């Protein structure tokens, strides 16, 4: 039996504070345990830094749980009303054509209150990136149904689950936006496991690159966990998300280079990837970049 | 357009206001068509690109004001507008833009004077005031637009220009030249991305929050801060008055109708009637002191407005019981609700002024008999 030497840190050890993205002023936040939003915020902040466009970055924040990051992201920021970030971002971008302008919105903000804003901004081909953190509930008010809540999902005002006959059907916003000619890049990622996080970061990279090339509107939707708003144990967040939201809001790149992928195509891609990963795991494991 | 020998140009009010905005440095405009505001938008759409500016035909009034909000956040001079109806849709943003201290200029090409409460009280939530300029004609409108951009920057507070159908559509011979104003502080609060990653990035927000480590008001502190700024803006009060020295009757009127009231009073003065007037140029701040002083020696005070009686409330506050206050205006639009209506006629105004002056009841507005609400038997109070 070997004894672990704890007198000095291993050579490759890093302190938690060193894992903080440089564009985050503090690690303090007001999010609940198990929340997926900080994971998504980290990915786009790191992407801005990786692309070397920090001093061009201007964020426009909507209103939701994620709004608390407006004070901790070290990015010039304009606070918009609930739902109104895309029009505010439009005004910013038209005055600062060389800036990297992005919105940060939730599903209640973007798909309920401000649906027409994001649709029209996409249709105009406005050269901004809209980021949607989609957890299918109003997290900030305590877990109420939004326009993206999937059928059967329990929320505080659909206690027996969303009933399509009574509450209507969810809006698949990414799919809707992909159909618009002004949309150049549309993707739907997730943060429910490491592979999904890594793929989401790639989506942010492609969306921002698309904006920097002035190709038109870009859109990244990220499915995020909200165990508090879903009334489930924290640890069950990722699997619950994958089995509810993930089954309806299909992940993948919905529009690249002008080509729109169907739900069936995306689903087939995801299943193929899953089989590939499972086969490699069975054969001895994944290398560092696998699943990305 | 016709250029006169003196270099003046015959120009529609809407174009004059748009050109005045552009000489003020306005470089962003967004709006949604609505009569009688539509032509302001048309001229902005045509003229702004000529100077490197942007005019967006927004998908709704909500987005128009949002776009202006974004442009203002970069430090640009920006404006939006509509009629009172369209401004109703923008009220949530007006409230919060005021808290965010952004210098928005708003064009209200109103369908009449029924938006006085909306303009001076705000239809939005919370404690806020906008400076409201009410030009009597296109010439003054050109000055007011330029003043509006200056005052908005000076106070970092929205300023509303209250026009109407007549202002938007009347042609006047004008020469639009930039006015001189005192220097303003640099907009060091504006965002352009250059502070990102510096540890001192900026946050243009109505919420009273700041970036981590920077001093923040908090929501309560922000409300208090705005509440203490607002009374200081009252020094921007502007007013015109005439014939007050020996006036037995004082009439208060604003905007285009005030010009007609002034003309009628000039006629009545020539006939020996002691009538004077107060014309609030700023509706907020309201010229309470001028109206109060005029009322102190008057027998009666009247409020002439093309509405059911809104400004009359401010007149009553100003007069504070020194003299009886009578509402002598009335609802007055064309049949479609657009124009400034049948009371905008000097003969009608003269009749109403004389009735007030001679202590007679105000006449029924011609043709309105059939629109008059009749008290029903079940609504009468039991004896």
Secondary-structure map:
The complex is a heterodimer of chains A (292) and B (383).
Chain A: H1 37-50, E1 57-61, E2 76-79, H2 85-95, E3 100-106, H3 107-113, H4 115-123, E4 129-134, E5 137-138, E6 144-145, H5 164-167, H6 173-178, E7 183-190, H7 194-212, E8 217-223, H8 227-230, H9 237-243, H10 245-248, E9 252-256, E10 259-260, H11 263-282
Helix pairs in contact in A: 1-7, 3-4
Chain B: E1 2-3, E2 9-12, H1 13-23, E3 26-31, H2 38-47, E4 54-57, H3 61-73, E5 77-82, H4 84-99, E6 105-110, H5 116-121, E7 131-133, H6 138-155, E8 159-164, H7 165-169, E9 171-174, E10 203-204, H8 218-229, E11 239-242, E12 249-252, H9 255-270, E13 275-280, E14 282-284, H10 288-296, E15 300-303, H11 311-319, E16 325-327, H12 346-357
Parallel strand pairs in B: 3-4, 3-5, 5-6, 6-8, 7-8, 12-13, 12-15, 15-16
Antiparallel strand pairs in B: 1-2, 2-9, 7-14, 11-13
Helix pairs in contact in B: 1-2, 1-6, 3-4, 9-12, 10-11
Notable characteristics:
heterodimer, A: 292 residues, alpha/beta, Rossmann fold, eight-stranded mixed sheet, two-stranded antiparallel ribbon, B: 383 residues, 2 domains, five-stranded mixed sheet
Characterization of the model:
- With 292 residues, chain A is an alpha/beta fold.
- Helix content of chain A is 36%, strand content 16%.
- Chain A has helices at 37-50, 85-95, 107-113, 115-123, 164-167, 173-178, 194-212, 227-230, 237-243, 245-248, 263-282; strands at 57-61, 76-79, 100-106, 129-134, 137-138, 144-145, 183-190, 217-223, 252-256, 259-260.
- The longest helix of chain A has 20 residues, at 263-282.
- With 383 residues, chain B is α/β, with parallel strands linked by helices.
- In chain B, β1 and β2 (9-12) form a beta hairpin.
- Chain B has helices at residues 13-23, 38-47, 61-73, 84-99, 116-121, 138-155, 165-169, 218-229, 255-270, 288-296, 311-319, 346-357; strands at 2-3, 9-12, 26-31, 54-57, 77-82, 105-110, 131-133, 159-164, 171-174, 203-204, 239-242, 249-252, 275-280, 282-284, 300-303, 325-327.
